[in-house]
């Protein structure tokens, strides 16, 4: 019986195999997950219907199960209309979730095309395709070191 919030069997299987520096992508509903999958990555689709399951719910579940040392968002190109309005609201939700989890981790944007390259790396072990409707909600997590108490 699992004690953390994450109960998805395939996601737990992949997380059990990953190690320090492994990467996990939480992809929004617009992300081309099947065509940008890294060579060692599994794809799990949680996109049941628009908005269900979303990126913040997925982040909360993952944080209950694994240590995270870095979080990267997809940086917004300067020519995108969204770039003028500051950070997307979902980024503030991520910051709140990280803080509530006791993590002092800053979101670090990676420019769009570099983000795609990072996701295509051999370090990516899992892409979770969500049905998130918010724009610019993609989040790349780097697994940290498990602390022995």
Q: Can you give keywords for this protein?
A:
26% helix; 149 residues; single chain; six-stranded mixed beta sheet; 22% strand; RbsD-like fold; alpha/beta
Can you put this structure into words, describing what you see?
By secondary structure, the protein is of the alpha/beta class. The chain has a single domain, classed as RbsD-like fold, CATH 3.40.1650. It has 4 helices and 6 strands. The protein has helices at residues 9-17, 55-63, 89-100, 112-119, and strands spanning 23-27, 42-45, 68-75, 107-111, 124-129, 139-143. A 6-stranded mixed sheet has the order 2-5-1-6-3-4. The longest helix has 12 residues, at 89-100. The radius of gyration is 14 Å and the shape is globular.
Topology (SSEs and partners):
Elements: H1 9-17, E1 23-27, E2 42-45, H2 55-63, E3 68-75, H3 89-100, E4 107-111, H4 112-119, E5 124-129, E6 139-143
Parallel strand pairs: 1-5, 2-5, 3-4
Antiparallel strand pairs: 1-6, 3-6
């Amino acid at each position: 019986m699992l004690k953390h919030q994450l109960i998805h069997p395939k996601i737990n299987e992949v997380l059990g195999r990953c190690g320090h520096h492994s990467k996990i992508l939480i992809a929004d509903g617009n992300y081309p997950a099947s065509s940008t999958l890294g060579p060692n990555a599994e794809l799990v689709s949680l996109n049941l219907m628009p908005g269900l399951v979303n990126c913040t719910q997925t982040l909360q579940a993952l944080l209950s199960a694994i240590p995270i040392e870095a979080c990267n968002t997809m940086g917004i190109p300067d020519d995108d209309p969204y770039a003028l309005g500051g950070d997307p609201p979902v980024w503030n939700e991520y910051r709140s979730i990280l803080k509530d989890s006791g993590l002092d981790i800053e979101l670090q944007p990676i420019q769009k095309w570099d983000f795609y390259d990072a996701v295509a790396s051999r370090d990516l072990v899992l892409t979770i395709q969500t049905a998130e409707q918010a724009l610019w909600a993609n989040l790349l997590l780097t697994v940290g070191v498990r602390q022995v108490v």
